[in-house]
Write a structure and sequence with these properties.
InterPro entries: NA-bd_OB-fold, Primosome_PriB/ssb. By secondary structure, this protein is an alpha+beta fold. It contains 2 helices and 8 strands.
């Protein structure tokens, strides 16, 4: 239990990507953006700070449930899970990827409502499943949104 567990309040930054591994394990990857706001006392205005983007990986029933819930770009969400910072090399440069292996993901009910329907649970992840998650995170790292593509939080 020495893992870093975090909670993220943000919004879906890109359409989720759903797949089923060759082992039959459902997998869903999505980008979540968080844009902090700070109050500037000099101007008496709220200011947006730089947006942080994280890759969120969902497995098994969570992947199926998120996929069935049809989260769309801009949907406000809450995510909890295990934080992973992965280092990799691309084009001769070392890069870092912030990823969350989600344990829960749902709509931010401060900003809307939801209709809950319970489901059943699944089994363990294979090494191939984890490699698929890393490949999906690498795809997200290549796709850097421009400021006009970023939906603003409500």
């Amino acid at each position: 239990m020495n893992e870093a567990h975090i909670t993220i309040t943000g919004w879906v930054a890109a359409e989720p990507r759903y797949a089923v591994t060759t082992n039959g394990t459902p997998f869903l990857s999505l980008r979540v953006g968080c844009t902090p706001r700070r109050y500037d006392r000099q101007t008496s205005q709220w200011q947006d700070v730089d947006t942080l983007f994280l890759t969120v990986n969902c497995w098994r029933n969570l992947a199926d449930n998120v996929n069935a819930s049809e989260f769309q770009r801009g949907t406000p969400v809450l995510v909890t899970g295990r934080l992973r910072i992965r280092q990799y090399e691309r084009d001769g440069q070392w890069r870092f990827s912030a990823e969350v292996e989600a344990t829960t993901l749902g709509p931010d009910l401060f900003r809307g409502t939801a209709d809950f329907r319970p489901v059943q649970r699944g089994g363990p992840l294979s090494d191939e499943d984890r490699r698929m998650a890393e490949d999906a995170a690498d795809e997200w790292a290549l796709a850097t949104p421009t400021p006009d593509e970023e939906p603003k939080a409500a």
